[in-house]
Write a structure and sequence with these properties.
Jelly Rolls, homodimer, guanosine phosphorylase activity (chains A, B), Pyrimidine/purine nucleoside phosphorylase (chains A, B), glycosyltransferase (chains A, B)
């Protein structure tokens, strides 16, 4: 278990796909943001603005990154990068806890 | 929208009822704790240790408090108190965003 200290948390949740994906936004002292979220099983396509690092804290999903036709299994303790201004698709196989860092 | 500043957030989610209810723990400078959570539609019974204040940020549920046989509708912007060492049941009717404060 780990924690973020001296941060600001936006109280209201971010809700996507009718609650299939929900997250809270955490703002760090340097102004950078992360979201801590939960994905229910299902298939979700997200588009990015800034580049992102998705860290899977627990759970399991199949991932298709932009420009690829391949699906790759990602599980707890693994992470992946998503380029700016792109889209990626996840088939979430079991309840997935994640931390998404927004870069730049 | 509102925010909690200068807090610590536990990164890993709390997961209940196979993900029907998930939350993150926020620790304040005075050591008190709140959880920010999401409930999917469904029926959930929770037991309390410390007394709690449940604030419904959005969503809708029917609530049965300890010692009562009555169900009462609770919606966004409303809150309710739960005594220590008791149990309460919620029938969540639509995706519900909440903030739970633990007292004493």
């Amino acid at each position: 278990m780990s924690e973020f200290t001296n941060v600001t948390v936006i109280r209201e949740a971010n809700v996507y796909f009718d609650g299939g994906v929900v997250s809270r936004t955490v703002v760090f002292p340097d102004g950078t943001k992360k979201t801590l979220g939960i994905m229910q099983p299902g298939e979700y396509t997200f588009t990015t603005g800034a580049p992102e690092i998705m860290e899977i804290l627990s759970g399991e999903l199949d991932l298709k990154l932009p420009g690829s036709d391949a699906w790759n299994r990602v599980g707890g303790g693994e992470s992946f990068d998503v380029p700016a201004n792109s889209s990626f698709t996840m088939k979430v196989l079991s309840l997935t806890d994640y931390c998404c860092s927004f870069l730049g």
